[in-house]
């Protein structure tokens, strides 16, 4: 099985696995330093658009990404060549990070508008709605405070406490990192589906055959669904997955049109 590994795929597997074990067991500071943060976070550095791809949240996160590369990568490398598959991997990975950062900036802008709304009109109902929208970031005791604040809406101490809570939520959200090669992997996935649409794949869960184009379609629709639902307790960066799909599709479409360099 491993004899069929192509050079770029093999090196990407070795690099990702090697960096994971180094960051997990030898230099844990790398995980925080190389993850991708919101661009206005004090932890953000431009090189993170590249390095976040080589960080993973755990062994299962690493395995799922590397298994996908292991399954779909070799045939793509044989067809596209080593230079193009590496280009695909890197552009989809870095591009996903850039687009995800833009998406995060949009979300943070919405959050800032809600905070500004409260600052302009420190109404307990506005704060209550803010807590409701971000309840996963508060302890249950916050509702006791909301009750007190509602009974004394002019209390300056309560107003300041509400502001402090809102700023704490903003600080926490701005410092949530993104890690993983999923954006790059989804670029590989869409490329495989576009170039080998009728290739039969056999799923492990559930154990059944499926054509590559239908598998890609399922992943695409599932990703779009999760982006739309936007469950705040879901720690998966679905928008980065969607970005990888879109960038990969654009890149493969460009290569297919430019026949002189595609083959």
Which features characterize this protein?
263 residues, mainly alpha, Rhomboid-like fold, 2 domains, two-stranded antiparallel sheet, 2 strands, 2% strand, elongated
- The string of secondary-structure elements, in order, is HHHHHHHHHEEHHH
Give the total of beta strands. Answer: 2
Shape: elongated
- CATH superfamily membership of the largest domain, which one? Rhomboid-like
The Cα radius of gyration reads 22 Å
Strand proportion, as a percent range, falls in under 5%
How would you characterize the overall build of this protein?
- The chain crosses the membrane at residues 12-39, 51-73, 85-103, 184-205, 212-229, 235-255.
- Residues 47-104, 168-253 form the Peptidase S54 rhomboid domain.
- One of its GO terms (biological process) is proteolysis.
- The protein is mainly α and 263 residues long.
- The chain has two domains: 2-105 and 178-262, Rhomboid-like (Rhomboid-like fold), CATH 1.20.1540.10; 123-174.
- The protein is 71% helix and 2% strand.
- The protein has helices spanning 7-26, 29-34, 48-51, 59-80, 82-120, 124-133, 142-151, 156-174, 182-195, 212-229, 238-257, 259-262; strands at 200-202, 209-211.
- It has a two-stranded antiparallel ribbon with strand order 1-2.
- A hairpin with a 6-residue loop joins strand 1 (200-202) and strand 2 (209-211).
- Helix 5 runs antiparallel to helix 8 (156-174) and helix 5 crosses helix 9 (182-195).
- It starts with 6 loop residues before the first helix and ends with a helix.
